[in-house]
Amino acid sequence: MMHLVVSLPLRNAQQLDSLLQAIYDPHSPQYRRFLSVAEFTDRFGPSAADYDNALAFFEQRGFVAGPRAANRYLMALDGKVSDVERVFHVTMGLYKHPTENRNFISPDRAPTFDLDTPIQEVLGLDDFVLPHNKMAHAKVERSAGGSGPHGNFIGSDIRAAYYPTGSLTGQGQSVGLMELEGVNLSDVALFFANNYGAANSVDIQLIATDSEPVTCTGRCTDGEQALDIEYTISMAPGLSSVRVYVGSSPEDVLNAMASDNISKVLSTSWGWRENATDNGLFAEFAAQGQTNLTASGDDSTLTASGPWPEEARDIVAVGGTDLHTATPGGPWSKETGWADSAGGPSVNPNIHIESYQLPYINSANGGSTTLRNVPDIAASADTDMTICADGSCAGGWGGTSFASPIWAGFIALANEAALSQGKSVVGFINPRIYALGHDAGYSDWFHDIIVGKSGIYDCVPSYDLVTGLGSPQGQPLITHLIE
């Protein structure tokens, strides 16, 4: 059996680009006037006739389809290999991987269909690139001056560093986490029982998006999944919910997040094979006002870390830092670039730089003036963090896997503040944060990280390809982010 995801082309692509420009332009009457799922589907989703025709085509040929997608963009299909070969006009084969000690499956050619309805892409026909998380572990555990065992940082340390004063807790907000394996909530409970974060009262919802189990059993390890929950809640302990979307296919998860449109902040710390389908989902997130964050990677370069999805246009890539606090549980003291924080220009020559990022590129940071540059922002990622996973708690963990959920919790605080003032949630933050970076108050809103190096890139004043625009300075940044 094979699990596939088939996408249809979105309609009115140029109009969608124009709308996103207007939604994130403070001078436009459409500024932060986000679409509902129904509005997005009506204007940009594939037509109902095309979706129905394609769905009927596959079902009539032996495939079992998953639930109908609200945006009519994707269809999840399960079928026998023999049906895949017959209907997609391919022959499936098993091949030796050229760089990894394993075999991979792949068709012998690109699929074709006896179908008039246009098909954008078929995902799941090969496993040449396996999804991977962006955690790192120290070979030797060291003290970082945090409040946890052996001086490692814990969740409450991180909130104190990045949101030192203020009453925001994320009240009324939901954060959605993308996970490609299940999690045991007993590990999360252990984290808070050990006082590694404020006592937890957040509703944690496990949501199955395909046949992948939502709990971690057998050979599964839940370090990534657990830390995402633990550090999101630590930053925003008053959230109404953390919705943990679990699936074997990244697109099953992403489409469920978009179709639900409940969590206005989304975070992923996984990487997978680049594809065209995700671009439509990321655009839908932006149009619906969902902030979409991702870890930039832990191997200094995008090539080594796996460039997707952090190099995508409509996503916020979060790099890593080495955080220091004045005292255990005390305020931010200093921050340097983390030596393994992945960054650089897009490895895909078709992902061009956005106009808001272009003015930041110079000889000092070494960025590209033609390609999108990664990361956009950063947070703590050095291997001096504590997690509870797989039945026990330990320090020595790091990776940009931490940085993304830290920022997710922070954006939930900003959304709480915005809604309390009768404003909209902030949505895709890149146009706004790059605008703030030009302002004279930039150094009061971001920690501008000017010391450190990762790979060939140095931390320099203002923007750099290790830490982006830097890490958040609590309430002052929130005040200006929601404007």
Supply the number of helical segments. Answer: 14
Largest sheet: 8 strands, mixed
Overall average residue pLDDT: 96
What is the C-alpha radius of gyration, as a whole number of Å?
22 Å
Specify the CATH homologous superfamily of the largest domain: Peptidase S8/S53 domain
What is the molecular shape? globular
CATH class of the largest domain: Alpha Beta
Whole-number total of structural domains: 2
In whole angstroms, the N-to-C terminal distance is: 51 Å
Strand percentage: 15-25%
Find the CATH topology of the largest domain. Answer: Rossmann fold
Structural class: alpha/beta
Judging by the overall fold, what is the CATH architecture of the largest domain? 3-Layer(aba) Sandwich
Please give the number of β-strands: 25
Contiguous uncertain segments of 5+ residues? none
Helix content estimate:
25-40%
List the helices and strands and how they pair.
Elements: E1 2-7, H1 13-23, H2 37-44, H3 48-59, E2 64-65, E3 74-79, H4 81-88, E4 92-96, E5 103-107, E6 121-123, E7 132-133, E8 136-137, H5 155-162, E9 174-179, H6 185-193, E10 203-208, H7 223-235, E11 241-246, H8 250-260, E12 265-268, E13 270-271, H9 277-287, E14 291-295, H10 302-305, E15 316-325, E16 332-337, E17 344-345, E18 373-374, E19 377-380, E20 385-389, E21 392-398, H11 400-420, H12 430-436, H13 442-445, E22 446-447, E23 453-454, E24 457-458, E25 471-472, H14 474-481
Parallel strand pairs: 9-11, 9-12, 10-11, 12-14, 14-15, 15-19
Antiparallel strand pairs: 1-3, 1-6, 2-3, 4-5, 7-13, 8-21, 15-16, 17-18, 20-21, 22-25, 23-24
